[in-house]
């Protein structure tokens, strides 16, 4: 059975205006109908650019944001319907690691007090000595010395602080850890250390991860399944290797082709699809397919009126595009005005031929 | 003769009653006309301070700048402030990392662009406004006349960076310094900005000094790459040689530690152990020695010199600051080699011991 199942989850933030009366003048559709399933022991990677709603979705699972509608089924119970106190108690099993390791640790608490706080709140460990023993054990697991107990967050480097954040989640023995941009604030050499740590912990403790990140290479490295978000909705979901080998949604293609690869040979011969323009505002999302305003493969009528739903193409590969099949076999040609295809010789031409990305 | 030749640049910060700290301890590199040179390194390696020193933007108090930076026969580091002001904007220009904080939030974009035109090109009134609109158009901002009246907060991140680039190229500078120009941007926008920079370099023959921590960006854009560690260049090479055969253990380790989009899954990363805090002063030896796997006692006999890579078949111009350089080609297995979709993890690579920082 799957550990976490999201069913049409929506998170809308009201936009309020007015001096005396808070009139709601509109909504920001941060997350607008996301359904996904995470199996126990798996890593699910959620990627997307800033403003696509990936962080809001992660926080919504823990109900750190109010869920507007939809179901969050964790191990058989719908978290969205739980009373607050029961929700608080179930958070022992769902923990979060935040992006900014310094901002998410109280500068006036020492490490022991930071780690013991959650344990006390959830009634783990009968007394201080028992808790300390557990904390020392977890600190060792994440590669921090035991003398860290009495030190303060500012005494640690960025990578060590992120280890503290991971330890804070681990002391509660959770089943699911939501990692929101776990390595994006870290230097490259430190990133790899933290990624390896997350993988080791998963293996030894049987953890399930929901990893939220904008860095496709990182997500691809650690995830079993990847979901790509655009303006509050999933546009494509597939097993990690399949998504890389055969991206089917036009947005995924553009996104993957935009990631620079640290290898001059690859960089010189790689074909890129350059999108024009910026992300539309989630307060006023485009009608129909959310991506149609920037999509080079856009077709008249259907794309701007009918919103595509995630449909399964092959085993585990779900795509929300009306024309995914036609784009893949080349029957639909992209339009130059909306994107440029950069071919290896350095000239830019319209995306005219069948763009065979990846393989 | 190179356009810019930096020789033993050294920057020391000395606050009142504080211990002096050396941010840049002897950096040398050349930039030719029309060339893209990269300065790569992690936070704290001195790459941004180098760029600020070259532009004369470091505070005068509490900072000691030594060395030479020869730009067309004049030493930038010893120039009078007024002479430097004339050079900045016309000959040298800079693009900063965070476009929101480097634009004035209470002044419309148009005024900020025309300011440069009137200061350096003596343009006034409608002529200046027309030129500003043309500049915005050139960097790919749609509807430039309307955008000129807007404030920075009304523009998106990518658009702000474009506006900043427009200001930098307003006087057709010979040398453009870009300090992490795409770090604050999303990848699809990053791709647009990098393409724009490439275009400017190709069309105008502007030299570009690209400062970044992203090795992917370097691989696609730079001609020559200098890798910085603890305020010194540790390796300098043509990008192809650097990425194929990184000789300094730090550069080698960095390239090994980044997850690649085109690598098969299941291979553990090989991180460089420790953190930037584990370094020794260059005077005592190689600053990277405490984190290095190839470290020997020889490494502690003073700072190694930056010298050409020895051995048969070593490419010309490949310089490294190391007594025991890594001599192996970096073989990265990509999906193309193992076949797409192959999920079987490759032979477990011997993983370096991961120690706490």
UniProtKB/TrEMBL annotation, chain A:
It holds the Pfam family oligo_HPY. SMART domains: AAA (SM00382). One of its GO terms (molecular function) is ATP binding. The keyword Protease does not apply. Keywords: ATP-binding, Nucleotide-binding, Transport. This is Peptide/nickel transport system ATP-binding protein. SUPFAM superfamilies: P-loop containing nucleoside triphosphate hydrolases. Residues 4-256 form the ABC transporter domain. PANTHER family: TRANSPORT ATP-BINDING PROTEIN. Belongs to the ABC transporter superfamily. One of its GO terms (biological process) is peptide transport.
From TrEMBL, chain B:
Belongs to the ABC transporter superfamily. It comes from the Bacteria. One of its GO terms (molecular function) is ATP binding. SMART domains: AAA. GO terms for biological process: peptide transport. InterPro entries: AAA+_ATPase (IPR003593), ABC_Ni/Peptide_Import (IPR050388), ABC_transporter-like_ATP-bd (IPR003439), ABC_transporter-like_CS (IPR017871), Oligopep_ABC_C (IPR013563), P-loop_NTPase (IPR027417). It is found in: Cell membrane. Residues 336-357 are annotated as: Disordered. Keywords: ATP-binding, Cell membrane, Membrane, Nucleotide-binding, Transport. The keyword Secreted does not apply. It comes from Streptomyces zhaozhouensis. CDD domains: ABC_NikE_OppD_transporters. This is Peptide/nickel transport system ATP-binding protein. Pfam families: ABC_tran, oligo_HPY. Residues 4-255 form the ABC transporter domain. One of its GO terms (cellular component) is plasma membrane. It is a peripheral membrane protein.
């Amino acid at each position: 059975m799957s550990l976490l199942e999201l069913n049409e989850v929506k998170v809308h933030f009201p936009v309020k205006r007015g001096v005396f009366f808070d009139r709601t003048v509109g909504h920001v559709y941060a997350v607008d109908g996301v359904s996904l399933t995470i199996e126990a022991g798996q890593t699910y990677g959620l990627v997307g650019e800033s403003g696509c709603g990936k962080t809001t979705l992660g926080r919504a699972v823990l109900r750190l944001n109010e869920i507007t509608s939809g179901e969050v089924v964790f191990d058989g119970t719908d978290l969205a319907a739980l009373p607050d106190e029961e929700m608080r108690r179930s958070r022992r099993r769902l923990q979060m690691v935040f992006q900014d390791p310094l901002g998410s640790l109280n500068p006036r608490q020492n490490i022991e007090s930071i780690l013991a706080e959650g344990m006390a709140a959830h009634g783990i460990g009968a007394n201080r000595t028992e808790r300390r023993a557990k904390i020392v054990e977890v600190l060792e697991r994440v590669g921090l010395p035991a003398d860290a107990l009495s030190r303060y967050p500012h005494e640690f480097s960025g990578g060590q602080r992120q280890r503290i954040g991971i330890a804070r989640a681990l002391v509660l023995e959770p089943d699911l850890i939501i990692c929101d941009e776990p390595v994006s604030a870290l230097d490259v050499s430190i990133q790899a250390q933290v990624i390896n740590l997350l993988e080791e912990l998963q293996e030894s403790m049987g953890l399930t991860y929901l990893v939220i990140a904008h860095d496709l290479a990182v997500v691809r490295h650690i995830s079993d399944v990847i979901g790509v978000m655009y303006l509050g909705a999933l546009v494509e979901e597939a097993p990690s290797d399949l998504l890389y080998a055969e991206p089917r949604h036009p947005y995924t293609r553009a996104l993957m082709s935009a990631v620079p690869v640290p290898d001059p040979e690859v960089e010189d011969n790689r074909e890129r699809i350059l999108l024009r323009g910026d992300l539309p505002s989630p307060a006023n999302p485009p009608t129909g397919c959310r991506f149609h305003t920037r999509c080079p493969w856009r077709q008249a009528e259907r794309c701007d009126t009918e919103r595509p739903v995630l449909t399964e193409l092959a085993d585990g590969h779900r795509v929300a595009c009306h024309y995914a099949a036609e784009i893949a076999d080349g029957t639909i040609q992209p339009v130059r005005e909306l994107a440029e295809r950069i071919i290896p010789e350095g000239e830019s031409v319209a995306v005219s031929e069948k763009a065979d990305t990846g393989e | 003769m190179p356009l810019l030749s930096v020789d033993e640049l050294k920057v020391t910060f000395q606050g009142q009653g504080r211990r002096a700290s050396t941010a840049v301890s002897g950096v040398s590199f050349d930039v030719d006309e029309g060339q893209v040179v990269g300065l790569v390194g992690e936070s704290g390696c001195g790459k941004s301070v180098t760029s600020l020193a070259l532009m004369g933007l470091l505070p005068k108090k509490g900072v000691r700048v030594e060395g030479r930076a020869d730009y067309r026969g004049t030493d930038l580091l010893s120039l009078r402030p007024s002479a430097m002001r004339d050079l900045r904007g016309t000959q040298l220009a800079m693009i900063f990392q965070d476009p929101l904080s480097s634009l004035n939030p209470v002044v419309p974009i148009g005024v900020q662009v025309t300011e440069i035109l009137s200061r350096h090109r003596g343009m006034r009134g409608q002529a200046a406004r027309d030129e500003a609109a043309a500049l915005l158009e050139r960097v790919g901002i749609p509807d430039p006349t309307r955008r000129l009246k807007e404030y920075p907060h009304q523009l998106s991140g990518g658009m702000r960076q474009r506006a900043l680039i427009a200001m930098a190229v307003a006087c057709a500078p010979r040398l453009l310094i870009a300090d992490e120009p795409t770090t604050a941007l999303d990848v699809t926008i990053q791709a647009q900005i990098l393409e724009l920079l490439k275009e400017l370099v190709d069309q105008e023959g502007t030299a570009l000094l690209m400062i970044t921590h992203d090795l992917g960006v370097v691989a696609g854009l730079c001609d020559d790459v200098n890798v910085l560690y603890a305020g010194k260049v540790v390796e300098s090479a043509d990008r192809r040689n650097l990425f194929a055969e990184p000789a300094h253990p730090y550069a080698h380790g960095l390239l090994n530690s980044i997850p690649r989009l085109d690598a098969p899954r299941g291979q553990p990363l090989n991180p460089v152990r420790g953190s930037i805090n584990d370094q020794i002063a260059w005077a005592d030896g190689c600053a990277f020695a405490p984190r290095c796997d190839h470290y020997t006692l020889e490494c502690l006999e003073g700072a190694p010199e930056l010298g050409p890579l020895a051995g048969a078949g070593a490419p010309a111009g490949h310089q490294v600051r190391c007594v025991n350089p890594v001599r192996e080609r970096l073989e990265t297995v990509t999906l193309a080699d193992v076949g797409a979709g192959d999920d079987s993890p490759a032979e477990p690579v011997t993983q370096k011991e991961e120690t706490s920082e």
